[in-house]
Amino acid sequence: MPVTQLVPSLEGEVQPGTAAFYRKALQLLVDARLEFLVGGAFAHACFTGIRRSTKDLDLFIRRDDYERVAALAEAQGWRAELTYPHWLAKVYCGDDFIDLIFNSGNGLTPVDDRWFKDNARADVLGVPVRIANLEDGLLSKAFIMERERFDGADIAHLLQSNAEQLDWPGLLERFGPHWRVLLAHLTLFGYVYPGERARVPDWVMDQLLARLAEETGQPPADDPHVCAGTLLSREQYLHDVERLGYVDGRLTPVSTMTPQDVAVWTEAIPARQPEAQAQAEATAALPAANGAVALSGT
Fold this sequence. Notes:
5-stranded mixed beta sheet, globular, alpha/beta, two-stranded antiparallel ribbon
């Protein structure tokens, strides 16, 4: 298997106590011969050299392995929580935590056997581990387009650092019917790095643009009235599905989400939390109060 040289240990990006927790958890899984992949900021550092602080450690696992991971964690006195059953669990050690990811938030990219083929290896905090493949990392980031978070820059940096190493046929296959999302990111890459556009193989752009040309001007015979925007942002297209009658893209066959999954994931939107709502209402009231004072002084 390929070997990736990790930038110096990343010890400086986390506090010593947190690093010790991560290190022990990684070694625990390795010793148990349980398959997992390191992703997130650690994997991004491996592939781009970009180092940044991180509040957690992202590990990709198969959903079927969660109960075993949880049992190992709880035997250490840690707390395991199936936070969002359709895609994410957490392991807590005090205030520190590890994310266990077995799908994407939109239900499009379940972790399966394909994720565990030809993975790069690296030392993370001194523990030899396998790293999530470039293609899977890129795929999982491509659909994150929230108001508060857009991973397009991460994708641009992954391409800038690794365009020649990418499995382009595999990447096209992984995106499947969502090829327009890939085309959008590749178009932005050519904008961000105009002198490096040629690093994306001509045949890739030709194939995607040919698909676009074929689709242009040919709407579906029967409009399914789907809003796929919810696959990109859990919040910004709620108006479409709640007020305009569009079918939620997460509730079509392309996603593994159920109506209950959608409801739980929607309820977890930070802006919908009670404290956020109270703060927003208080802020909204300020201009009105100021206006009343100004009016009384005229």
